[in-house]
Write a structure and sequence with these properties.
globular; five-stranded mixed sheet; 116 residues; alpha+beta; 3 helices; 39% helix
Length: 116
């Protein structure tokens, strides 16, 4: 999932990446830019997303031109699936299962990984 603030403005250099990882019953989110990174832990994916928003605001307080890429263990599609599942009230276990299925499907479609 990519967010782009200030669609009519000038793009800022670089982007911010928010990478979410399940850790036991919690989620850890690592937010990084070209110049700095920060991490937080939260008791669910929705709470982790809120933590990510706060970290993003700390790293780049000016939202004009800010681009944020949300990933689940490096996979944007898996994050989108898991986040939508969580937003619709499925349990963290169901969210993790959906994320794993999405990641497996993406890996099967592109077994060599994504270039970059």
């Amino acid at each position: 999932m990519i967010e782009h603030a200030g669609r009519g403005g000038i793009m800022a250099q670089g982007h911010i990446t928010a990478n979410y990882l399940p850790d036991g019953d919690d989620w850890v989110v690592h937010v990084s830019s070209d110049w700095e990174s920060r991490s937080a832990r939260a008791p669910g994916l929705i709470a982790a997303r809120v933590q990510a928003d706060q970290l993003i605001e700390q790293l780049a307080p000016n939202s004009a031109g800010r681009v944020v890429i949300h990933l689940l263990d490096g996979d944007g599609f898996a994050f989108s699936i898991a986040y939508l599942q969580a937003r619709h009230g499925l349990s963290d276990e169901a969210t993790r299962a959906a994320a794993q299925q999405a990641a497996a499907a993406a890996a099967q479609q592109n077994p060599g990984g994504y270039p970059g």
